[in-house]
Design brief:
The chain is an alpha/beta fold. The protein has 3 domains: about 80 residues, no CATH class; about 180 residues, 3-Layer(aba) Sandwich (Aspartate Aminotransferase, domain 2), CATH 3.40.640.10; about 130 residues, Aspartate Aminotransferase, domain 1 (Alpha-Beta Complex), CATH 3.90.1150.10. Helix content is about 45%, strand content about 10%. The protein has 16 helices and 11 strands. Strands 2-1-3-4-5-6 form a 6-stranded mixed sheet, sandwiched between helices. A 5-stranded mixed sheet has the order 7-8-11-10-9, with helices on one face. The longest helix is centred in the N-terminal third of the chain and has 33 residues.
């Protein structure tokens, strides 16, 4: 009688047959675990070309970090409570579904279907429920009179503003001071007046066209200086290197240093290099040029400083900012055509600004590329292109009612605050109400964003709207 192999009998499988499964399991779990442990003993930083073995310094620093212990405690409480809740809920559902009850089969189907449906289908269903126009939720609430108008549940937060707000939250603490150009993006000024003031963070507005004014307002409390090129709405182009030089030359500096942050939405990384001009941080509203379709709300904060990167990154993580995968996909799509769109809109905008200067109703046209526009010399020195915005100051004898009639009469230019999308937009502004420094013009102002329509069609639209604004 021959001895049978212990693997030959029924119910036995040779161990080597498990190797195809064990190899990817080891590659996907054991290797990252070992690599992570190794990085824990080094000064490894994402993007670094060299690392140094530092033994237990990382762990010692972590043990001394009060934020780590706070996060550990919260994580432990969350893990224990969620685990207990899942076990109790799971056991309860299991017992309930196995009990002999009416409609037992239907109950099992309703519980099991969400576990079986692929995530992409869940996403489609979620969107059908929450879509602002076609969603079941809005339609139901409108039908019973709870809502007066639809709510865009999934996209009701402007992500360009959080990009600006994030910088302030990451860098400022009680007792610090923030300096903001007087012609800055309105919501960032509102954030300083509201939330930052409530947190004990003071602020001052400075004249960005006068570096000496910035110098006089800096103090030992100054931690962050916002820059904007050009100014929001009125489009003055500041001397950025001169402003940065004032910050660097300040002798009575904050103990943590002074950071310069530039709202670079207008330049979009195309018109000029923010870091070459001295900025520490470059913030962008990706809603504008990177999107290109005027259908995404998103912002970004970029820095070349590893220290600032970590401060902003961890603040970003703690406050829970995030973007949808499909929105990120749309931004990536728009980047491919951004340079072409920027150039086309730049050309069309310069054509329209030159033409508008010759209209009898117009007192001034504001655009950095126009000779005589505030900051034109700095623009010529530092920029290779210009964005699609220009503003028109009308003569003071034209009333606000006439200016509003002009805006309402436009057909291709729609009323709207955003810009850099495919459609042209316009919006009237009361500039004196937005500034602390004197505004030199008496007439009303309208800001225009030039889209991708034919420039001759846009000029025709402006012509017909100008012709009706005189009628009462």
């Amino acid at each position: 009688m021959t001895r049978r192999s212990r693997y030959a009998g029924p119910g036995h499988v040779p161990l080597w047959l498990f190797l195809p499964t064990l190899i990817p399991v080891i590659a996907l779990s054991v290797v990252p675990l070992v690599q992570g442990l190794w990085m824990g003993f080094t000064d490894y930083t994402l993007g670094a070309t060299q690392t140094r073995f530092i033994w237990f310094e990382n762990f010692a620093r972590m043990m001394r970090d009060s934020q780590f212990w706070g996060s550990f405690g919260v994580g432990a409480i969350w893990t224990l409570s969620v685990t207990a809740g899942v076990v109790i809920l799971g056991m309860g559902l299991a017992l309930l579904l196995n009990a002999r009850l009416p409609l037992q089969g239907l109950a099992r189907v309703l519980v099991l279907i969400p576990w079986a449906i692929p995530p992409i289908i869940k996403g489609v269903i979620w969107r059908l429920v929450y879509h602002p126009q076609a969603g079941f939720l809005n339609n139901g609430l409108l039908a019973i009179g709870v809502l007066a108008q639809p709510i865009d549940w999934l996209n009701n937060f402007t992500w360009s503003l959080p990009a600006v707000v994030l910088v302030g939250m990451a860098l400022l603490k009680t007792g610090d001071e923030l300096l903001i150009p007087d012609n800055a993006y309105g919501p960032s000024k509102t954030f300083a007046n509201g939330e930052l003031a409530a947190w004990g963070i003071t602020h001052q507005f400075y004249d960005p066209m006068n570096p000496q004014d910035l110098a006089t307002k800096m103090s030992a409390k100054t931690r962050l200086v916002w820059l904007e090129a050009p100014g929001s709405i009125t489009l003055e182009f500041p001397d950025l290197p001169a402003l940065v030089a004032v910050v660097k030359a300040h002798t009575n500096a904050h103990s943590l240093g002074i950071v310069t942050a530039l709202d670079n939405t207008w330049g979009a990384g195309i018109a000029f290099n923010a870091f070459a001009l001295g900025a520490d941080i470059s913030a962008h509203a990706l809603t504008k040029y990177p999107s290109g379709g005027a259908d995404v709300l998103m912002g970004s904060v970029v820095t070349q400083s590893e220290t600032l990167h970590h401060l902003i990154h961890f603040c970003h993580m703690r406050v829970g900012y995030g973007v949808a995968g499909n929105d990120a996909e749309l931004i990536l799509r728009g980047l491919n055509s951004m340079a072409l769109r920027y150039a086309a809109q730049d050309t069309a905008t310069r054509t329209l600004t030159t033409w508008m200067q010759g209209q009898p109703q117009v007192a001034a046209v504001l655009h950095p590329a126009l000779p005589g526009s505030p900051g034109h010399e700095a623009f010529k020195r530092d920029c290779t292109a210009a964005a699609c915005l220009f503003s028109v100051v009308f003569k003071p004898e034209l009333s606000q009612t006439q200016i509003d009639r002009f805006c309402d009469s436009l057909k291709l230019f729609k009323l709207g605050y955003s810009w850099a999308g495919p459609m042209s937009l316009c919006a009237p502004y009361d500039i004196p109400a937005l500034r602390t420094t004197p505004w030199p013009y008496k007439g009303g102002l309208v800001r225009f964003s030039v889209g991708l329509e034919a420039v001759q069609d846009l000029q025709t639209d402006l012509t017909q709207a100008l012709s009706v604004m005189h009628y009462s």
